[in-house]
Structure formats: structure tokens, C-alpha cells
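C-alpha cells please, single chain.
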Amino acid sequence: MPGDRGQTRSRAHPGAAVGLAGCLVLLAFLARQPSLDSPGFATVWPSGGIGVLWFVLRGARLRSLDTLLLAAAMAAANAILGADPRINAVFAGAAVAQTLLAVWLLRRWSPELWGCGGDRPLDRPRMLPRYGGALAVAMATGAVLGTAGASAVTGDYEPVAGLLFFGRTLVSSLIVVTLGILVGEWLTRPRPRGSLIGDGPVVELLAASVFTSAMYGLAFALDDLPLVFPLLAATVWFGLRFSTLVSAAHCFVVGVATQTLTMTGYGPFAAVERADIGSLLAEFYVATIVATGLALSTGRDERQALSAELLRTQEETLYQISLREAVIGSMKEGLFVLDDTGELLVHNAAAADIFGLAREEVDWDALAERSGRWADGSTVDTPQRPSLRALAGEAVHDVELLITRADGTERVVSVSAIPLPRDEVRRRSRALVIFRDISTEHARRAELAGFAGVVAHDLRNPLAAIDGWTEMIADELETGTLSTDLARDFVSRVRSSSRRMHDLIRDLLAHATSSQRDLEVGPVDVAGLVAEVAAARHAEPHVLVEPVPAVLADPVLVRQVLDNLIGNALKYVAPGVEPEITVRGCRTDARMVTVQVADNGIGIPAAERERVFDEFHRAHFRDYEGSGLGLSIVRRIILRHDGTIVVRANPAGQGSVFEFTLPAHD
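Here you go.
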């Protein structure tokens, strides 16, 4: 619970209350010489402060055993001081009443204070009015009750005695309760507790203590000279340079010394003609010193706390800035923040990279100049720019723009822009723009769209043929004129169209799996795979295999490469020509093996040799059937193995040579 820090032990031991009661009685015994001809009244007896601190430390309730012990201790102390039984009862009742009222007011007006419901030290100037007000109101109430009761009992109690009563209890509560609360809070503070004395070094504390002793020695020894003003300098020194706890300890020592010396006839206050007035002046001088010291030291503590908070905030801000820069800098997406004047407030390295600019070259004009077209090439109207729409308060998501990089190349980017909170200081709107390069994705979508169109077209033809021939079969069956030879011809044509569809679907599946299938790499005997492919195609007489070094690759995919290349070599030959295929290989460097598949086919025109590896491209589409996917599958597989593939004319004569590289096994 708040306010319970460090006080559980004192609450759990009722013996602490007995000890505090004994302390009150002992102090009364030490101050048993009555003063000012007022039986039972000792100016230096700190009854008000001890009682309030008692209840604060104990966290005692107003109606409790502590209240009874306090009343008994007050009565015993007054008896030791020689009070008349009737006066004793009045003073004891007034002391208990002012103590209970002070504790109640402190808990109501300063609930955040340690011992009063909270765990804060007395370290802010704004806390002093409520704290001091609670003590002053309670002690004034006790003085009124004590004066009125004494007057009722004796009939001749002097009014100045009420002021003395108030001054004594107020001063004792200010110096005793303040010091007790500060010490208690510091002792129960979690470690590390920080510096006890504040900014000033120990040497300065010693110097300030020596100065205080010297000034008070002079002022109270030479009481016929007006040397009181240097005493304020000591209080100011402690208040400005040391913690509130040290300042409160200084006020405690000064207060006790001032009152004791005054009551024993020393000092400027004892020189006053009336001893009671001198004592009264001493009490209010101590109250002034306490108020001044606490005001200065709490102000110092507050400034120190604010400075520490400012430093912590600055460090946190720097950390957040570094964190933000690290996050933004690590993003692959380009990012920038701009305001409605076109000022670019934040941008990351990715933004510069995507536009091909140096980071210092990135500004709003440069970005706007290079991003003025939609992905289809049409011009973007100025109001439709994503950034301007976001500045107007609209959120924009995933629109595609065509940008021109600094080197002249074009890229497609996906842009999202959202409005940010308005800068009320400069009265400007702000927007966050995030864009990412989707050129590959965009090209892939275009490729897939073309792929789908070609697939639909190529599947439509054999389907139309199948549909046409089956319809003709149905017509012939209805008329009863379908001969065996005609039926055989129709079925052959249907089967041919079905086979074309089967081959296309097979190639489509191979095309898809050639890039999606996980590689299972191992040593591969290329020559052995060539022999298997030739045997599967019944083409052993047409395929010559020379030694090929072992490669480190996926055997299934390498077989697919060889099957496509050998299959093309068998198919693309001139009419009447027997195909001749030679497969050879050699190590080209320490890590790669080069494999050549040479044929005597119809060859590939020079202008077509790069394009034959594109999807659905067929160099001889008029004379030979095919899907146009075989060589694109081959290239995908080779690239997945970090190899290369090219095609050139066969130097031995008619035909082509397909040359590809794969990683060597050892």
C-alpha cells in the first residue's frame, strides 16, 4: 500500500509507542526548570513535535491505544514540570487535541507525504503551504484551547502565554516532524538511495557547519551588537547547496540552540527587557529560519529532480531517435515524411536507393519529378498523388506508380500514404509515405497474365478439335453412315488432339515444379542419366555419350534438363534426316562442370537464340508442335543450381549446341 513503505515494523511493535511516551517524559525531566513564572510551562520542551512524529511513525489511528499513551505521557510530563493538577489536565488535553488534529490534517492535506499516506519526501516548494498550514492550524488550535482552559482555571493567565504556547509547539513540530519524516523516508528508500547531502561536497558541509557555529557564537556572545543578519546567510547556504534533509537537520540544531541559549540568558533575544517577549521572538525567529531553509532546499531538490528528469528524458529521446533511425534504416521499403510545404522531414536510405539517388540528393522535387506516372504509363494528375491525398487527410493504400531512377531505368513501386497528426506549432499537415519496389512482382504478374492467355489459347485449340470431331462422330452415328475407316480416322484425330492437351498439361506442371520443388542435392552421374533418357525414348542409336565429370545437383531436375534437350534434338530435325546427338562435358574451373548437348537438327536462327528460353516462345511454331515451355524449364533448373545456359550454332555443321554449367561434385 502507498504510505506503508518502511513502517510495518513500527506498527507491529506496540513497544515503540511506549518508547515514544518515555521519550516525552524524559525530555520533560530535562527541561523541568519552569520558565517565565508559568508553572508547568517549558519553552524548549518539544511536546508538539514529538507527539505528531509519534503518530506519523506509528501510522496510529486517532482513536487507539497510542492516544491514551500520549495523554498519559503528557500528564506525567506536566507533573514533572510542576504543573497544578488543573493546569495539567488543560495542557494535556490541549496537547492531545493539537496532535490528533495535526495528524488528521496532514493525512488530508498532504496524503502523498511519507508517513501521511504516501511515500514522497518533503522535496517540493508547493508541498510546504499545505504541510506547514496543517501544523500551524493544529498548534494554533492547541494554543487557543490551552490558553482558554488556563484562564478558566486560574482567572489571570496572561495572553502572551498563549503566543508562547503556540510558538513553542509550532517550532517544535516544524523542526522535529520535518526532520523525522525526511530521515524516515530516506532510510526506507530503495537502494541505491543517492546522495544524502545533495550537491555540496563533504568539505563544503564542514565549512558551512563551521560558519554557522562561528556566526551563532558571535551573535549570541556579543548580544549588544546587531549581528543577527549573518545567521540568515548560514541558512541560505544550507538551503541552496544541500538536500532538504541536511537543511532540516541544520534548522533543528539551530532551533534547539537558539531557544536553549535564549532561555539561559544568552543572545540578542535574551537582551529584550521582557523575558517572555524575548522567548517569543526567539520562537518566531526559529520558525522564520525553518521556513526559509525549507523553501530554499525544497526548491533546490525540485530543480535537481527536474534536471535529472530532463536528463533522463533527453537520454530517452536520444534512445528513441536512435531506435527509430535503426528501424527506419533497416527497412527495405522506402519511407519519407513530408509536410504541406513540400519539406521532406524524414527519409531513409532505402528511399534513396529505390530512386537511385544519393541520400543528400533526396528531396520532394526530386521524388515528385521521378514518380509522375501510374504503373500503366499514364500521367498522374497532381491532386491524385498519394502524398498530396494523405496531406489532405485521406489514407491511400497500395497504389502502383512507375518511377524513373537517376540512371534512367524504370521501376514499378507500390505506394501507401497516411496522414500524420498535424504540427500545431508550425500549423502544417504531415503525411507518411511508404513505397516498395515491386518491379519483379509486377513483371511476374504480367508474365502470369500472358501465361494464362497462352495456356487458354493452346488448350482451346485441341479442345475445339476434340469437340468438332466428336460432334461429327455423333452426326455420322445418327445417320447410320459411319464406316469403320471413317470412325478410325475420327478417333485418331481425337486422340491426337487429346495427346496435344496431355503434353501441354505435362509441360505446365513441369514448368511450375521446376521453380517450386526443393532441391535435393547430391552427386549426379550425367552420362548415366543420358543413357537412361535415351533408353526411355528408344533412341540409343542416335545418342552418343562421352565422359562427363560428376556434378553436385538434384538428379531428378538434371534428368528433366537432359530429357528436354535430347527430346528437342530428336524432334527438331529436317525430314528424312536421322538425328545425331552428342553429349560431352569437362571441368571449366575448380567449381563448375560444362555440359554440351550437340545435335544435327534444323538449328535456331541467331536472332532467336536468346528468346528460345522465354516461356511459350517457339522459333519453329509453324512446322513443329510444342508448348514453348521446355527450354524455359531447362533455364529455370540451371539457374536454380547457380549455373548458366546458352545456345549456339553447331560448329561441326547443321544443328545447335546447348551448353550449360552445373556445380562440380569435388
